[in-house]
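In practice, a research group might receive sequence data for several interacting partners and want a quick structural hypothesis before committing to experiments. The following worked case mirrors that situation: the sequences arrive first, and a predicted assembly follows.
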Amino acid sequence: MSSLITRVRKLQIAQTIEKGTRLDGRGLMDTREIKIEQGLIQKAEGSARILLGKTQVVVGVKIQAGEPFPDTPNEGVQTVNAELVPLASPTFEPGPPDENSIELARIVDRGIRESKAIDTAKLCIEPGKKVFVVFIDVYVLNHDGNLIDAAALAAMAALLNTKMPNYEIEEGEVKIKQGYTPLPLKSHPITVTIGKISNTLIVDPMLEEEQVMDARISMAINEEGNICAIQKGGSGYFTPQQIVEASKIAQEKAAELRKKLDW
Amino acid sequence: MNEKPEKLIDKKGLRLDGRKIDELRPLKLEVGVLPNADGSAYVEHGKNKILVGVFGPREMHPKHLSMADRMVIRCRYHMASFSVPERKSPAPSRREVELGKVIRESLEPSVFNDLYPRTGVDVFIEVLQADGGTRCASITAASLALADAGIPMRDLVVACAAGKVDDQVVLDLMDEEDKLGVADVPVAYMPSLNAITLLQMDGILAPEELEKAVNMAMDGCKKIYAMQKEALKTKYMTVKEVEE
Amino acid sequence: MPTFFEKKQLVTPGELLAEGDYLLGDNTYLEENKVYASRIGLVDCENKRVNVVALRAFYVPKVGDLVIGAVIEVGFNGWTVDVKSPYTALLRASDVLSRPFKPQNDELSQVLSAGDLIVAKIASYDRAHDPQLTVSEPGLGKITRGQIMRVTPTKIPRVIGKKGSMISMIKQETNCQIILGLNGVILVTGKSPEDEELAITAIRKIEEESHTTGLTDRITQFLKEQKVKPEEKVE
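A structural hypothesis for the assembly, expressed as tokens:
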């Protein structure tokens, strides 16, 4: 099954963009309305639901004890998985993660990992043997474009909402005690995705625009305005000048959103 | 486990393998190495050894994956179990799946895919030995293999990575620099159209450093592009040996 | 309005060939007033038309082309045929049986089965449909003897030669019947395997030296030499 976009619609989108606006009335650099809800899944250690326009993503964070990676024996582990749930779009089919969901998970993972958002050094239980594993699970519930920014935002919001259970070691076993501590975080990265249509850059492409666009580029930006992750996607290309322009736009938009969210 | 070196660039400005900041690792490209494939190429870039075979354009199986108005490119990136120090399971990892996607998306802009609707082209990449920068070397070889298969294209796609190591932007990261460095920026480029078809980054870079890294990578790409053309001409030049 | 190449220069995809008011020949494309090569080949310019003769290309069907193919499968109302092209070709039963076709009575595999070779013409082909073949002209149909060889389809015109000069000469010198499929498949039928081998070797030589001049004379010379010393045949 596919969501076909008609030639007439493609032309319409291109023409409005050439005139400097988009079909939903936004400016080229405008993001859709964002709504964030945290803590909706009480059984998870942390959770958040994001609405980015009509795109809806829920992220749940679970924390469990586990083994560290051999090359980082005293650090906690972070793992991100994404599910493009079939109810989110007529184009999503049930089954194991496909390349789109794997790419989405890995982009969100890199944004969080490279910015060192989670202070993994503080997640060590028993050096070399036991650490906390932070499972970040992204569930896309409605696809109306720009899953990357929505998922990254939801993941970060969920991490901000995450509380780790207090524990003590009793006879080599981890025993959960009363009370919680917020998950130690060092950074709050924000990801901005820019699409290219008719040789013009637009921020936060919605679904119809994604069906028409040549390519997209996503950049994760930290508090200092530095870039922690980049991913170009789509079967088109960017000129070097457009890359530089995109990095400036991403910086600006990330700062703007950071202020609005107070992150 | 190896000791982590304190500095990756020494006082003389030389890297762990003796290279300068803007020096490429040795590169060897060969076209038309697999007799059964429609097109093929082999690349040795530093210690990377990668083989690419292309089949097509041909009818797609399963048929429902084909598109009525264009040719579909499929790309499989796979690392041999013995390609890395710790044996890797032959089953495709999530990293390999992602790389298959981004490599395909780096090659798609180069190919005239509306010329052969309802067909498919399969690009099979086998990494026989890996040492940092496999996706770039794979793209360089895959583009040669597509040309060798006679598929019409706008330009060859060439790829090279730059990055930040210690506090400097350097060209063509090897494995240790990739793992221990500050940032890694692989870039794929079509020189005739000034088009960047792959760009990824992990690490931390200020925007000016990103610009510097991308420019450095493009310079590396241009040098490798000349080698790609040489490799193609060498393969077909033997045809020209007879005197007029 | 310059060109950037020498006659018969070897060019690669993406190489800039010319800028300005030029016509696009084979294997070239236009971007912002500049002509680029789209395949590896030898470039030339005649009457302002920039043309690249591809050294590597696959066969794309054209209506009216003579092709040689192998039957892959027997279907309900015809056969699927491999013509060494990105598209499989179809041969309808109604084209072969010169009478109305009854699926329950006629056994198609008796007429043609998988593995049979045929000489056919492309009857129809467009972007939305696979090529349809016809064998209803004289000289077309099932191949029963001879040897098959393949060359890159772009070399077939060279094997034919100017006004058929090359191919007639080879037929004469080797005493063979040669059918040239425009899809790069060639059928050589001779009185003896040695004659057929000689023709095949000559055609291989043409494929390798196709871009050079004086080729017809050289091949003629080669064939005459080979026939004189049968014990010292060059492989």
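Before designing any experiment, note the following. The two ends of chain B are 61 Å apart (CA to CA). Chain B has one domain: 27-232.
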